Amino acid sequence: MIVREMMSKTILSTSKIYDYVVNPYVGCQHGCRYCYARFMRRFTGHREAWGDFVDVKVNAADLLAREIHKKRRGVVWMSGVCDPYQPLEEKYRLTRRCLEILVRHGWPVAIQTRSPLVTRDLDLLKEAAEANAGLSVTTADDAVRRLFEPLAPSIPERLDALEALHRGGIRTYAMIAPLLPGAERLMEYLRDRVDYVLVDRMNYRHAAWVYRKHGMEESISDGYFARAGREITAACRRAKIRCEIVF
Ligand code: SF4
Fold this sequence. Notes:
Elements: E1 2-6, E2 13-14, E3 20-21, E4 25-26, E5 53-57, H1 60-67, E6 76-78, H2 88-92, H3 94-104, E7 109-113, H4 122-127, E8 131-136, H5 142-148, H6 155-167, E9 171-176, H7 187-190, E10 196-199, H8 208-213, H9 222-239, E11 242-245
Parallel strand pairs: 1-5, 3-6, 6-7, 7-8, 8-9, 9-10, 10-11
Antiparallel strand pairs: 2-3, 4-5
Helix pairs in contact: 1-3
The chain binds iron/sulfur cluster.
Residues 28, 30-32, 35, 37, 82-83, 114, 152 line the site of iron/sulfur cluster.
């Protein structure tokens, strides 16, 4: 793993998903097989595989403290092309320092992560003007998770994190994306832990070989996505949880 500290030029970028996005890191230690963010390699000069390098924007919080005064208040997404709570965050605390600034200025935040480290910042999220905290939970089967997300925290750890956030009074969501084999059973575990659910099939191009290697091609078919989408929607309706299928 190559870790490089660097100075970024900007940090608060406009986003198509929310108003803004903050990425304190370039690269991601979780190295998910299907990750769409691997296109970022092109902009870094890194030759290592996706998951084998991280650039740490050590001036992220200083930049945000300046840029927040130059932009109109809006929802800030953390993060779009890295996991803001990847293991290096424990040492660098860049996500936390950025959150402190956003909270202090009363800006709304939307967190998206695969890591229970997010619960470290429960105190800050409670103080936020508005906070949505989401865990990406892609399957109910941790053996499947290990095939596609071998370096990311386990599914039970993510469910525990959702529970802690939800109990802490934070508005929580599960991002079921990509919809991996076994995702259709997730609502059994999510019903008391989330306020809403987002589902997407995403782009499976980079991970197609994993499906082939393990004989799971059926789970990449339109038929599987339609069936899993129906089952999750029905389970959400029974649990009275809002569900958005975005494919
Ligand atoms: S956690 Fe997110 S950004 Fe990181 S490798 Fe996985 S999908 Fe990509």
